[in-house]
Amino acid sequence: MNYTLNQLQIFLKVVETQSVTKASEDLHLSQPAVSIQLKNFQDQFEIPLTEVVGRKLYITDFGKEIAQAAEEIINQVYAINNKTLAYKGQLAGRLRLSVVSTGKYVMPYFLTGFMKKNIGIELNMDVTNKSRVIESLEKNEIDFALVSILPNSINIEQLDLLQNKLYLVGYNKPKLTIKDMPIIFREQGSGTRQTMEKYFEKNQLSIQKKMELTSNEAIKQALLAGLGYSIMPLIGIKNELQNKELQIIPTKGLPIKTTWSLIWLKGKKHSPVSLAFLNYLKKEKATIIKEKFSWYEQY
Fold first, then answer.
1. What is the pLDDT of residue 89?
2. Domains and CATH numbers, the chain
3. How many CA atoms lie less than 13 Å away from 95 in the CB half-sphere?
4. On the CB side of 64, how many CA atoms lie within 13 Å of its CA?
5. What value does the mean pLDDT take over residues 71-92?
6. How far, CA to CA in Å, does 230 sit from each of 77, 185, 200, 208, 286?
7. What is the rounded CA–CA span in Å between residue 179 and residue 183?
């Protein structure tokens, strides 16, 4: 056996995503590079680790056992590195976050100072939709989640970070009222979709649904192309508003205001790393908002 840590990590990502393409995207590698390393790893075993049925990749029972062993090996490597850093007096370990997709415009600013002060910490941040974020939280797979709508299905604790504002946005200001506009929606499971639907229901609006897209970035590009209008979080369209590529359309009942909150399972026993991050946020939150989000108050 002559496998490398890199091969173990790639194999684990393939197992997690059950896709070479998705694994390559998550690892920021080319698909051929992942395929080559997966083949080199497979060649060291006489029993298949994966199989392809139709066009779908499956992990064999043997592959699942190897993945479990690979995870244990990698965890041991992390433990060795962490012990070395701890011996030198540095905070070390992993910080695991799951962030709703629009939260990618928020969370990095609350992480930068902490990560720079603690170079021994490894950050693992998954950016996905609200449903998957809550699922990760329920399974206790993460330390914290960032959401703009609090879940009511689980007991949580929270730290509020920043107000979230959602406006009706488009390429130009139409003569139509909102009920006659072609509206672009996020996918089911999205917090933004949930907020939009509550607004339409509250105001008894029958909406012309133009299309459904799976990310705010995709919606933004559709708006820039003039394909329709959407209710979007202000946080993700700063440049487009300042460059006058998109416009806020004054509408009764808007903006909708929610709050970006860091949440965690109630009673969770925090690791030294996650506890240090929580304390950092409590201390530095106001300064970060003042320095990084002052533009936000103009709207």
1. 61
2. 5-85 (1.10.10.10), 91-163+259-298 (3.40.190.10), 164-258 (3.40.190.10)
3. 24
4. 4
5. 73
6. 47, 7, 12, 11, 31
7. 9
Dig out the tokens for 6 from the structure: 């890199």
**φ and ψ at 129, to 5 degrees?**
-85, 170
3-state secondary structure at position 286: helix
The model's pTM: 0.74
Greater model confidence, 285 or 272: 285
248/252 Cα distance (integer angstroms): 12
CA-wise closest residue to 260 among 241, 235, 278, 283: 235
Average pLDDT over residues 82-104: 80
pLDDT of residue 86: 63
Length of the chain: 299
The span from the CA of 265 to the CA of 151, in Å, is 11
Q: Which residues contact 36 (CB under 8 A, 6 or more apart)?
A: none
Within 10 angstroms of residue 13's Cβ, the number of other Cβ atoms is 20
* The CA-based dihedral angle spanning residues 60, 61, 62, 67, taken in that order and rounded to the nearest 10 degrees: 90
Task: Compute the half-sphere exposure of residue 163: CA atoms within 13 Å on the CB side of its CA.
Answer: 12
**Could you write out the DSSP letters of every residue in 198-262?**
HHHHHTT---EEEEEESSHHHHHHHHHTTS-EEEEEGGG-HHHHHTTSSEE---TT-SEEEEEEE
| Owner of token pair 């029993």 | 47
Classified as helix, coil or strand, 128 is strand
Residue 293 neighbours by CB under 8 Å, 6+ apart:
109, 162
Question: Would you state the structure tokens that stand for residue 45, as one six-digit string?
Answer: 């075993």
Report DSSP state, residue 147.
E
Q: Would you call 114 helix, strand, or coil by DSSP?
A: helix
What is the per-residue burial (b if ≥16 Cβ within 10 Å, else e) of 156-194?
A: beeeebbbbbbbbbbbeeeeeebeebbbbbbeebbbbbb
